[in-house]
Amino acid sequence: MLRLFFRRFTQALLWFAAGSVLLVLVFRFVPPPGTALMVERKVESWFNGEPIDLQRDWQPWEKISDDLKIAVIAGEDQKFSEHWGFDFGAIQAAFAHNERGGSIRGASTLSQQVSKNLFLWSGRSWLRKGLEAWFTGLIEILWPKQRILEVYLNSVEWDAGVFGAEAAARHHFGVGAASLSRQQASLLAAVLPNPRAWSASRPSSYVGRRAGWIRRQMGQLGGEGYLAGLNDSRRAPWAQ
């Protein structure tokens, strides 16, 4: 019985590994039709009796403002072009901060956020963290950096039920994602740590200050030149 259990368990792991690799590879070329987080939000609305209208309109890379791309990197993951999915320096700093008590600080990279939002559920269990690490590794191996950022910008939540750059730009500013100004882009990036509590169109003083800091960081990153160098030669040949 024990041997049978381990054989079945091993087979299940192999099937899961093969299936997840295939799914990640497909989404390198095909826009994901939705995300696990969108499903989670819809199910939550059924249980709490508060209807939610999910908004999302996928836009390709060239139809998203370069200012928004840079603003999100400046605000969320300034080592995005350098790491392979995990910023171990930020993880160590967050762990030290959390050990001291007080507010919980995260250290998720954009790649980790994509894997969590696209494939997994919310929570802090070790199982979810392990699966997040698995999918993050696959994404970094199989996708170029530009694709990771493209999927992130089309999947992240910017208000309750508002997913992706196009829906967020229209919801907050009445423009398309391609037409976002530098200031609007920085405001959208500024609310990402808590998008359902903070508003890009009605920013608090804290959000306004954070947006100003993000604009300064955008200049230091190098703007469009930074974006052009995302898919550099350090990437694996199959992820170019």
Automatic annotation (TrEMBL):
GO cellular component: peptidoglycan-based cell wall; plasma membrane
Family annotation (InterPro entries): Glyco_trans_51, Lysozyme-like_dom_sf, PBP_transglycosylase, Pep_trsgly
Pathway it works in: Cell wall biogenesis; peptidoglycan biosynthesis
Location of this chain's protein in the cell: Cell inner membrane
A GO MF term: peptidoglycan glycosyltransferase activity
Principal localisation: membrane
A single GO BP: regulation of cell shape
Catalytic activity: [GlcNAc-(1->4)-Mur2Ac(oyl-L-Ala-gamma-D-Glu-L-Lys-D-Ala-D-Ala)](n)-di-trans,octa-cis-undecaprenyl diphosphate + beta-D-GlcNAc-(1->4)-Mur2Ac(oyl-L-Ala-gamma-D-Glu-L-Lys-D-Ala-D-Ala)-di-trans,octa-cis-undecaprenyl diphosphate = [GlcNAc-(1->4)-Mur2Ac(oyl-L-Ala-gamma-D-Glu-L-Lys-D-Ala-D-Ala)](n+1)-di-trans,octa-cis-undecaprenyl diphosphate + di-trans,octa-cis-undecaprenyl diphosphate + H(+)
Record-stated family: Belongs to the glycosyltransferase 51 family.
Role noted for this protein: Peptidoglycan polymerase that catalyzes glycan chain elongation from lipid-linked precursors.
Protein name per its UniProtKB record: Biosynthetic peptidoglycan transglycosylase
Source organism per UniProt: Pseudomonas fluorescens
